[in-house]
Amino acid sequence: MPDTPTPPDPTRAGQEAALGEDGLRRCVWAASHPVNRHYHDTEWGLPVRGEQELYERITLEGFQAGLSWLTILNKRAAFRQAFCDFVPEKVAAFTDEDVERLMTNAAIVRNRRKIEAARTNAVAVLNLRAEGGLDSFLWSFQPERTPEPRSTAEVPTTSPESTALSTALRRLGFAFVGPTTTHALMEAVGMIDTHLVGCHRRGTSGVWPSG
Length: 211
Description:
InterPro entries: Adenine_glyco (IPR005019), DNA-3mA_glycosylase (IPR052891), DNA_glycosylase (IPR011257). By secondary structure, this protein is an all-alpha fold. The chain is built from nine helices and two strands, in the order E-E-H-H-H-H-H-H-H-H-H. The protein has one domain (10-188): Endonuclease III, domain 1, CATH 1.10.340.30. A two-stranded antiparallel sheet has the order 1-2. Helix 2 packs across helix 3 (69-82). It is globular.
């Protein structure tokens, strides 16, 4: 599932892949907290396909804006329950009363604009079906090359492709899809590989060589 990692600690900026107690090197953001580490080792950067799966990632990336990704990971089960497992038809049918109900749900991030954006984006996902669907649309923005960062300082937060994707999504009616958010989405679903060179997960997506 923008999915995106917690931004690196500024005091550790520029670090190369961190060596863990298990002898494996990982991206710095995943080196300490076990929830981040598990997500990094089992999900982040692996290819994600399918309308429902990608809609979930778009939604969670939007909720992550301004927060740590760890916060979203810890609430992911609650998000799935609150948003009907991210079935677009169900979320698109949410009423204003549903929005108010979600605003009282302490298990998720209670941000009205983000909740309303989830509903808005579900409608946009349904509308995209007439043009080939969300999956083919998003993956059409996959770049020809992926970054090859050797340290956290070299990890980009936007790209020409993420900017183009952001613009295209906004034209289609999506919300909370700025260039930084779409870049994080591209990282999370395997469209690019920003595992640090030296990280044991680099190149494991099958989309890009290890470099």
